[in-house]
Structures are given as C-alpha cells and as structure tokens.
Design goal:
By secondary structure, the protein is an alpha+beta fold. It has a single domain, classed as STM4215-like, CATH 3.30.2000.30. It is built from 3 helices and 5 strands, in the order ααβββαββ. The chain has a 5-stranded mixed β-sheet. Strand 2 and strand 3 form a beta hairpin. The longest helix is centred in the first third of the chain and has 14 residues. The mean pLDDT is 94.
Length: 136
Amino acid sequence: MSYGVSAALQAAVYQALSADATLASLVGNHIYDAFPAGTLPPLYVALGPELVKDQSDKTGGGAVHQFTVSVVTDTAGFATAKQAAGAVSDALVDADLTLNRGTLVALNFYRAKAVRVGAADERRIDLTFNARVADD
C-alpha cells in the first residue's frame, strides 16, 4: 500500500471544486482545505477527514481513499446547503482528475448525512466519496 497519492488526490479534489462554475455561483471562493482566520461566510465548503485502505495487487500499489467534503451554512433550513452539496457531488462524481502523483481509477459518491449543528440555525451536509487510486 502507498499513502503517497493522498496529497495529490486532495489537491486535485480542491482544484476541481474551486474550478466548478455551478459551485462558485453558490459559495463563491469559499472552498477551504484549511479554515481562514476570522469569521466564516454564511455558506462554505470544507475538505474533511479521510480514511484510506490498501487496494494493492500484483500489478502495483493502490488504495481506496474515502474522504468527506462538508457543506456548512448558518441559514435556517437545508435548501441552500443541499443545492451546494448537489454541486459538489456533480463536480466530483466520475470526475477525470489529473493527479501530480499516481492515477485516479474511479471517483464515486458513497453517502451523505445532513445534520443540524448546535442550537442555532447552522446546518452541515457531509458528503463521503470513494476514490480508487493507483500509485504508478
């Protein structure tokens, strides 16, 4: 197994989300790998946790990266967050991402969970994707 493709995959996912016009129309440039200092905007996207499992075989090293992208809003109701979550999904599912190390074999939607956060109006949708990569 190799974890070496992880940074390349994360960079490609961030680039794909940042370049997506539909997502930009909803969240602007508020797509984060690391949160900025200060107050967060009312709607944003954040790259989240990752779980990686070995998928190497006799042809070479590989792994499945299960990663989360979160859509967060401080607006009451889920409608706005769901529109942004749909745009995230559309931008990533079956995306043809170019990695600076390794090769993306497949990128698929796995699941989503929509929750209220705290006692305020904040809502969060966590979208989980599976990316199969080869470290060639």
